[in-house]
Amino acid sequence: MKKLKLFLVDDHDLFREGLKFLLSEWDLIEEIYEAENGQLFIESLRQHPVDLVLLDIEMPLMNGIEAAKLAREVDPDLKIIALSMYSDENYYTSMIESGADGFLLKNSKFATVKRAIEEVAGGKNYFSQEIIQLLVRHLNKQERAKDNLVITDREMEILGLICRGLSNTEIAKALQISKRTVEKHRQNLLDKTQSRNTVALVLYAIKSGYFNVR
Q: What is the pTM of this model?
């Protein structure tokens, strides 16, 4: 994987500086830019294009939701990982709809941060079981009903495993089918549900009652 240029956007100086220090010691990272709110981030992004942004959800002046939308307009290929607290769960749906490719809880271990960056930079999505459970807890407060979308039994199996965070290789092994078959079913699910990425697909599954975390 090529070296990455990152933007770190968070209004808490101590958190931002600590994470920047850890990231700067990592060989994969070439450059790190900082901003303390979404407005400064958007203003700087045009001058400092990056591969990926670690973007806090709750910030003054401009929050992560609005910043993610505007960042997508500046650079549609930008990878976005939302930085969240447990109390941010009311914003998760909006953040996904704004284009987040992954979520990290702020109390995550640095090894988890590295894994999330590698997966998202590599074109995948990252969301932990904690995030899924918080999504479920929030969505359970709302009325949920399955739509009339036709999903086959095999697609339903694969959707459930995707929601549990399994990779295509892991799903193929669990179901004893080829990885290419899993990839085809995953793409069919994305197309049927009109989901732009795996995070949005998981959100759809939870919203529509196809998946529940016990």
A: 0.73
